[in-house]
Amino acid sequence: MKASFDSASNPILPVLKTDIRRILIPTDFSEASHHAYLYALPLAQTLRAHITLLHVMDPTAMAPDPMLHTYVDQLRESRFQKVSENFSTWLLEADALGCAVLPETVTQEGHDVSSIVTYAEENAIDLIVMGTRGTESPGQSLHGSTVVRVVESSPCSVLAVPERSIWHTVSSVVYPMQLTMADVCLIPDIMRLASMMHARVLGLHVAVEGEVNAPEAAELLDAYMAEYPNFKMAYVPHMDVAVCIRQYIAEHGVSMALMPTTHLSWQEHLHAHTSHSITREVLLQSAVPVWAFHGAA
């Protein structure tokens, strides 16, 4: 029997966008961003999406002294030239990998996070792909990680790709979830996205002592398990949710994690260091890419 409840029909509950047509890759030409680019190229072909490469140059790096205008102009021109050369090298890589449509390249002056988020908002970006070291501690992430701040401010999903993650066909994705209506109702969206990557979905509920689950959510979950043969559910007791998720990923050869995050305003970012985010913790320490999307607040 087909489950009748779908998040798309209820505006109160979160919806995961699955029609990915425009992918943005912000780059500072570091190893981490280059690795994310190489990962995103075949992913874009799989999703039939177009890539835009964005490089943001910090204007504060230029000397503000009026006496140095000529020098500043020369420095700016030199930096733009270097960026153009780097983009040319990256486009050659895309061509060598057989990309039918080469990425678009954009260079802007501004501040990294705000420029990335604004570009995504103004250009109907569906997914932002960024590189991480995959070894940062949660403490490091709370004090200025560009990826974390983009994830929490972005109007769209963000795929964080660790440097040690190598592209291969995505065979399975894990969806860590609580047994709430907000999480369970996302399963059809999760399944649609996974099917585009030809992957099966492993639902994971980390059972923490003292939690209370909604009976209606459990009933809906049973209906979805019956409806989707490529969806399997695991229940694992553990005191540390983030550690459990990473262990599950390692033990089951998972290709990617799909995790919800909460959208933060700039005022909330001022206090973000006091909050605890399982998605943030997993994202910065995961050995596989983490697709972070906006869940329920």
Structural commentary:
Strand 1 (22-26), helix 1 and strand 2 (50-57) form a beta-alpha-beta unit. It is elongated and about 70 Å long. By secondary structure, the protein is α/β, with parallel strands linked by helices. It is built from eleven helices and ten strands. The two termini are 31 Å apart. A ten-stranded mixed sheet has the order 3-2-1-4-5-10-9-6-7-8, with helices on both faces. Mean pLDDT is 83; it is low at 4-11, 139-144 and 264-275. The longest helix has 28 residues, at 69-96.
- What coarse outline follows from CA principal-axis ratios? elongated
The helix fraction, in percent, is 40-55%
Largest sheet, in brief, is:
10 strands, mixed
Mean pLDDT, nearest integer?
Answer: 83
The chain-level structural class is alpha/beta
Strand order of the largest sheet: 3-2-1-4-5-10-9-6-7-8
Radius of gyration: 20 Å
Low-confidence regions: 4-11, 139-144, 264-275
What is the rounded distance between the termini?
31 Å
Helix-strand topology string: EHEHEHEHHEEHHEHEHEHHE
Number of helices: 11
Q: Which strand-content bin applies to the residues?
A: 15-25%
What is the count of β-strands?
A: 10
Keywords:
297 residues, alpha/beta, 10-stranded mixed β-sheet, 11 helices, 10 strands, 40% helix, 21% strand, elongated
